[in-house]
# Entry
Amino acid sequence: MLFIRLWMFFAGVLATLFLGWAALIGVPGVQLASVPAQPGLRPYTYEEMHGREIYMREGCVYCHTQQTRPQGFGTDQKRMWGRPSVPGDYVYDRPHLLGTSRTGPDLLNIGARQPSRDWHLAHLYNPRAVVPESIMPRFPWLFEEKTGTGPQDVPLAPGSHIVATREALDLYAYLLALNRTYPVRRAEP
Amino acid sequence: MKAPPLEQSPELVSLRRVLDESAAVPVLLFFATGVLWLLAGTVFGLLTSLKFDMPDWLAAIPALTFGRLRPAHLNAVNYGWASLAGAGCLLWLTSRLCMTPVRLRGGLIASVILWNLGVLYGTGAVLLGYGGSVEWLEYPLPAAAMIGAAFLLFAASILQTFRMRSVQHLYVSLWYTVACVVWFPFLYVAANLPIYSGVVHGAVNWWYGHNALAVWFTPIGLALAYYFIPKVIGRPIYSYYLSLLGFWSFALFYNWNGIHHLVGGPVPNWLQTISIIASVLMVIPVMAVAVNHHLTTVGHFRHLRSSPTLRFTVFGAMCYTAVSFQGSLESLRGMQEVVHFTHYTVGHAHLGVYAFLTMILFGAMYYITPRVARWNWPHPGLIKLHFWLTAGGISIYVIAMCTGGILQGYAMNESVRPFAQVIDLTRPWLIARSASGILITGGHLVFAYLFAQMLIHAGPRRETAPWEEAAA
# Structure
């Protein structure tokens, strides 16, 4: 007892899904397809892309957003986390890493807020060494212990035998590239 | 002497037995593998929660870092447990409602194998660091393709059984069942296409993430609640017309909801607004379903004591009403300003997928398993224990996460408060969540033990077996 014919039921079922797709993906897809990168944004380098893969591999996205909210909506502006982000800030992000959770702070402009390599490496090795209240995981596998360090090695601290691997350095390069502090030059939807 | 009611006539009893036999092997395979994923997913979930309390525990093992355990948990419980158990329930339900044996059973066996290999591959990949970091879509493409193909085999069986139906009347549960097996493949394929980037990818991500609930998980829960509440109580659904309104408004509004996950983010404002409007419009289908379920139950609460199926299902149906109203409220900008990015969202998600869907799945499995395994649940006391551990556990979970989340949200919106203080503020609520996780884990162990006994016909043989019983 559907009160309509069966083919109409199936047509309705397909139509409702299609309508939602058209509204939420189709139209914005067309609207945003023409949005070019903001003039201040540059593509990621090879190292930064590799760092981004480490960021994805370790699931950083589950605690850190990469989107800054406008004045009057939360306190991102007052916390100096950066101007509200726009679609043109994300043109090279594939996949997107907007995030939905702020167990940790937003990272869209972490490269501007905290550019220190020493800080980031120490923080990745043991977050509680630099932020005692932190509940972030440690990532010791991004480092290795060496008996003797050479000139290319980046130790955690002067004289330390714990040195950063290529993965840690590239992850740092990516974090440093998270910097959307350039002004928005083009109005966007 | 009173004549037995029509539904207990010998012809119908023996027909039902034929139907249940046709469903037995595939349904038990879906259930059994689903229970294994429930256990695995529970371990991942509990470890994830404990990581908040003890971040230095098991900290040197890459596969057990928070950022890999969390997606492993989400995917194992959704694509493993809820999808497999749900698919098993829908197979049995379709056969019963269409009064015809389950068709394409060979395909179903292939489906179970492929589905499990896909979940195993995908979850293993996430743990080993090959997850895609796109929430709900972390599985690598080959794993997603295996699950998609398995789903098509399952959908083909449902649609073929439906086509061979020997009834005129199409009960409400069948509308939801047939609709969801048509919807989900389109959704899953569209979302997994590796063609998106930037903000559009964010929109696709949440169009999918929310729709996985809208077009797959929620229809399963509603189809089962619509079936079991009237079935166990023994009275018809309160209003048939209302269920029609409920279905079509559900189909129309639910799949416009997804972008409320990006409120305040860099997506166009109009897009956020239409998703908020659609989320509020969800009040219509939810009211229709709520009135139908609750007014069918009202006055018959004594059955909750005797029927585990009804107890779990009514608990789930009540949580559906709660989670839906919560979701409509939560989508509003004023609320999003506070709770977006907090643990509140996690509480909401568990009120949906666990307190609503998983509890209804347990209820359905308590009804279906004895009929397909031809053995009665051996320990009624353990079923009660299972109910109270899971119902109590998830209640603590949701209250802790939602309260903690609101406090966390207000604290984050006080710009003078250092971020470290926000973390300190959430600690006790996260410990409460881990405690609730221990209760829930205990409940799942009890359930898995009971289910294993059903499979091997162990435990005391109880007097009345349900397939011999007259009453439901």
Notes: Residues 1-34 of chain A form one domain. Residues 146 and 161 of chain A are 5 Å apart (CA to CA). Chain A has two domains: 1-34, 39-177.
